[in-house]
Specification:
The two termini are 12 Å apart. By secondary structure, this protein is of the alpha/beta class. The protein is globular. It has seven helices and nine strands; from the N terminus they run E-H-E-E-E-H-E-E-H-E-H-E-H-H-E-H. Helix 1 packs across helix 7. Strand 5 and strand 6 form a beta hairpin. The N terminus is likely disordered.
Amino acid sequence: MTDAAAAPPETRRSRLVVLAGPTAVGKGSVAADVRRSHPEVWISVSATTRAPRPGEQDGVHYWFVDDDQFDAMIERGDLLEWAVVHKAARYGTPRQPVEQVLAEGRSALLEIDLQGARQVRETMAEALFVFLKPPSWDELVRRLVGRGTETEEERERRLVTAREELAAEAEFDVAIVNHEVHAAAEDLVALMLQSPTTL
């Protein structure tokens, strides 16, 4: 793992925190709680080619784009990272807003999938990588089934992916167990507010 404290102070513009974890662990819910409780924390909005779920708003939860628009973003180098998730839709992080926030000396939170986190580590190894994990496998299955936003086939596909994703915890700097959304969000914000030299 990369030690953020190893970077010379003059090269550390601000704190970039990457939150990832298995499907249905509650990454989006934790990020939404941070957005509500800590408006001072800047959270990146990902672009995706999947259709909006009930209640999701364009530009708030995701930027919903079609395949042609996503292709154009890749070709222009507009994405910090992108990946095909669950062998279905594509997700990516727009580069310019993240770089602007960091250049201003502010902290930024990326809530992304495991593939994306690995890409960001290649280019921004000084970031803090946080793994959000469920209390148990049974609880993860319960949450995925309970939210009722996927077909049975998609749920099965996501559960296969989730087992692989859970095995990646060792790649991260720190883990947070999502027993309860608000508590996990507060733990995450506490990490963001810590000086890199204290971790």
